[in-house]
Amino acid sequence: MALSGLDIYKLLPKTNCKECGQPTCLAFAMKLAQKQAELSACPYVSEQSKAALAAASAPPIRLVAIGTGEKKVEVGNETVLFRHEKTFFHAPGIFVRLKDTLPAAEADALVEQLHNYGVERVGIKLHVHGVAIENASGDAAQFAARVAAMQGKTDLPLMLMAAGAAAMEAGLEKAAGAAPLIYSATAENWVEMAALASKYKAPLVVRAQGDLSALANLTEQIKAAGVEDMVLDPGVRTSHGTLVVLTQLRRLALKGGVRALGYPIVTFPGEDAESVEEEITRAAQHIAKYAGIIVLDHFEPANVYPLLTLRQNIYTDPQKPIQVSPGLYEISGPQPESPVLVTTNFSLTYFSVAGEVEGSGKPTWLLIVDSEGMSVLTGWAAGKFDAAKIAKSVNQFGVPGKINHKKLVIPGLVAGLSGELEEELPGWEIRVGPREAIDIPTYLKTWS
């Protein structure tokens, strides 16, 4: 059971040294109780108190890693119900299910497609995160062979799905050292599956059919057996059911302090879905609330891309927008007579503008002003994208030395800055460009 702020305070040194960043030890204790501070911030807490405070300072949802190396997937360790309260930290992994009954040639082609799939958005490479191999055949040797074939073709993290312990161990032997996610431990087989999780040092999915009390009891038994890294499958598959149960699990972990349910969640949006479109819609719901691993039954780049985009948007820190480095960028080999366009360093703005400029084929200088990652209008409203900052950037990044003219194009959304900018840059001609990036190619055709 989680400790209250006063319980925690009794175990702190009570020096009020402020080295933890809080004005008093009591204030620090209250932050610990609310999961808004780390115990390690106190330099003087005793080892005895550390042990007593372990439960209070541990994250409400355990961080679980699947796979190893650069491509490992880390899920869990969330601290809020809603993104705007703080941020979401660990985006869900998108896995694709591959049954061992699929012909070898088709399976190999799918794995190759998953391994090579990737698309860049606002400077970040988006990709599929793992493969779930299911022992649909019921044959342990066939399952092991498919796992072995997978290991030789990709380094994507694995999820191994088998009902029997014998088949699961056969697969785990082929994936030894890869820390795959084991699916799954139930009330009937948890002893065997927990033993395999301990032996192969792999995280374990714990499944109960819609009964959260049974699920909590099962995780406590498995934890007592020595397995710490678990992922929950509440066993619900309908759209409404998963929304309700996943929200309940998140609330119980964060607000109710129920440690037995403080683990990431795996979902299967394709099960019980009547179409691929319904599967993708459910997957989008699971990204928002509150899956840690999402296993798809179908893979098409056109369907996966919007899911990855949604995932990226939701798991971007709202207080720290994705941004690019300010500077003067060259697009299509600009010359001294080429136009100079100005915009902010918000990544989405930069890549939208840069993409349209590149698509126009017109050699162009693109001056990126430091707006602290804000878009054009937001930056202007906050005083982060104004005439003074634009003028400073013109000189800071050596624009006058790169061109043989004094013409500067500002975004149409901030046309009102033109007069102020002419005062900041005497002798320059300030032109007003399009309001939307999509109109840039047409504008550049008439630039002279």
Structural class by sheet pairing and helices: alpha/beta
Biggest sheet strand line-up: 10-9-8-7-6-3-12-11
Domain count: the total is 3
- Rounded to an integer in angstroms, the radius of gyration calculated over CA atoms is 27 Å
- CATH level 1 name of the largest domain: Alpha Beta
CATH topology of the largest domain: TIM Barrel
Q: What characterizes the major β-sheet? A: 8 strands, parallel
State the helicity in percent bands: 25-40%
State the total count of DSSP E strands.
17
Unreliable stretches (pLDDT < 50, length at least 5) are: none
CATH-defined superfamily of the largest domain = Dihydropteroate synthase-like
> Based on CA inertia axes, which overall geometry fits?
globular
